[in-house]
Amino acid sequence: MRTVHVLNGPNLDLLGQREPEIYGHATLADVERDCRAEAESHGLELLFRQTNAEHEMIAWLHEARTGAAGIVINPAGFTYHAVPVLDALRMCECPIVEVHISNIHRREAAWRAHSIMTASVTGMITGLGVDGYRLAVRHLAVRIGRGE
Question: What is the domain-level CATH number for residue 53?
Answer without folding.
Answer: 3.40.50.9100
